[in-house]
Design goal:
Blueprint (H helix, E strand, L loop, with lengths): L1 H56 L4 H85 L5
Helix pairs in contact: 1-2
Length: 151
Amino acid sequence: MINHRFAMLIKIQKEREEKLQAQFVKAQQFYQQAEQKYQGLANYRTDYIQQSQQQGAAGLQSRQYTQFVSFIGKLDQAIQQQGWALHQAKAAAEQRKQNWLAMQKKRKAMELLVQRGEQAELLKQLKQEQKNADEYASQQFMRNRNEPQMY
């Protein structure tokens, strides 16, 4: 009966653990997407600067230079915002991972407790069987000893 209760608790723990694992996987995917966006923005900024430098070698008008500087500033701001989002996504993924691992640890501890309980119960049964066997052997010995022997 106790093992049945623990089995139900372990089943609930497994369900919770699976939900936490799914949340971790989603958070990890979100983090990877944020990282890709960050890298994409950084790469675009680098490419844009290289292209502008190539065009600038031929000469830039002041209006073009102002537009270039303004656009680079906007890219820098977008990269900074995406960097913050990346940091948040990483922290969220790590927190969900820790929650999942903690639930996994708790479930494993419960399973170990049940296993030890089952082992203790088995040991108790084996001792009782040995005690019964010893008692039976003792009674048989006493009967054989008390019976008159015929030769």
